[in-house]
Specification:
Number of strands: 19
Radius of gyration: 21 Å
Function: Catalyzes the reversible cyclization of carbamoyl aspartate to dihydroorotate.
Pathway: Nitrogen metabolism; (S)-allantoin degradation; allantoate from (S)-allantoin: step 1/1
CATH superfamily of the domain at 58-354: Metal-dependent hydrolases
Helix content: 25-40%
Number of helices: 14
Distance between the termini: 37 Å
EC number: 3.5.2.5
Shape: globular
Bound molecules: zinc ion
Organism: Actinacidiphila oryziradicis
Pfam families: Amidohydro_1
Amino acid sequence: MSDNATPDLVFTGGTVVSHDGRRRNDVAIRDGRIIAVGEDLAVEGLPTVDATGLLVLPGLVDVHVHLREPGMTEKEDFASGTRAAAAGGVTTVVDMPNTSPPVATAERYRQKLDLVKEKAYVDFGLYGMLDHDNADEIAGMAELGAMGFKLFMGQTTGDNRCPNDAAIFRGLEAAAAAGLVVGVHAENDHLLRMFGDRLRSSGRTDPRAHLEGRPAFVEVEAVTRIITMATEAKAKLHIHHLSTADGLQRVRDLRAEGHRVSVEVLVGHLLLDDTAYDTYGNLIKLNPPIRPAADVNALWAGLGLGDIDVIATDHAPHTAAEQAEQDVWKAYGGFIGVETMLPLLLTAAAQGRLTVEDIVRLCSYTPARKWSMAAKGQVAPGFDADLVLVDPATQAVVDGTSMHSKHNVTPYEGWALTGAVVATYLRGGLIYEKGAIIGNPAGRQVRPARVPLATAGA
Ligand SMILES: [Zn+2]
């Protein structure tokens, strides 16, 4: 071996799981990158990590988290949220822009980057906002490394003004020119407000009113409209947290007509159905809402058919007091999830509902490719040594007191788990092991690789 090829660390004896298979292999790394995957890579006298009996996964890429900086740090901040990510085997997060103030200009984007970049325990991308009037800011945010742009067609935390269709189209064109993804919260805002007003004036304050105020066709309409517009604008479109059977069927129909779009579902939409409102009340208020079992089953069927591209968390922390709010109209939407995603999905894998390869594909490989993270999502030479060591047989229960967010209130409290994160490595450095965060924040900004347009010349 030449000196250049000498590893500084080798993981031995583990089973490397990729998006399309698994194989017993060593993984050799040097300077934070994987240099070889194969048999018998250990070099005498050099450090090794014994991964015998463990699965070795590429670090998860969660493209949907709200770490609440700036402006809402009583709920979460970049340090606490990325510690939770590290403990959950998530080595890259994409943070949403609906903060206070929202990240809707290049100036705000730069300020946010300065604010968070020294605090991150895992690598991070930052979304900008596609606002009601900021198409002129898209290129500037792209220049600063924006991972993409979030479009709220329906209102959510932060009460941002939803853009009208003309503003959406101009934003889609600007994002397409920058070659970046537009990620959409697809619900029709006018209909949401009308149904909400109706239920409120009828005197309803119970958790289920939130579900009744967001019927499936509100999602179907928004999905149809945004896919139609994105195709016309040649934008790379991603639907965040698709939640209904009808919405998924509309995506299938539009794909059959030639439209291209990726689809995400949330862990919460897969593991909870509307019977859970009786147990958890407003803790599981979510936008879009937790749905009836027929929708949940359709999402699982969609996963099995390959119609769904990404699983994400929508990690959306609030304070413990906020999560206890009894009036559904005063309660916030969302709950934490970045630390429990992998153990919960490993548990689903142990139950035969999907495979660990599926988890790698949906939570690491495909997100890394869709968002052009050139060095993420695979355990292969040239990729970042973001590795998660998993024991698929460990029996545990979800225990908020051992978790790392600021407020560890979770509907999954006490749920039985099969499978656990043993250790997490970020670019070759150990950042989490057996319950403990290791070392100082070492996360870096991930910028999408610039994919040159065919027409752009040399
Ligand atoms: Zn969200």
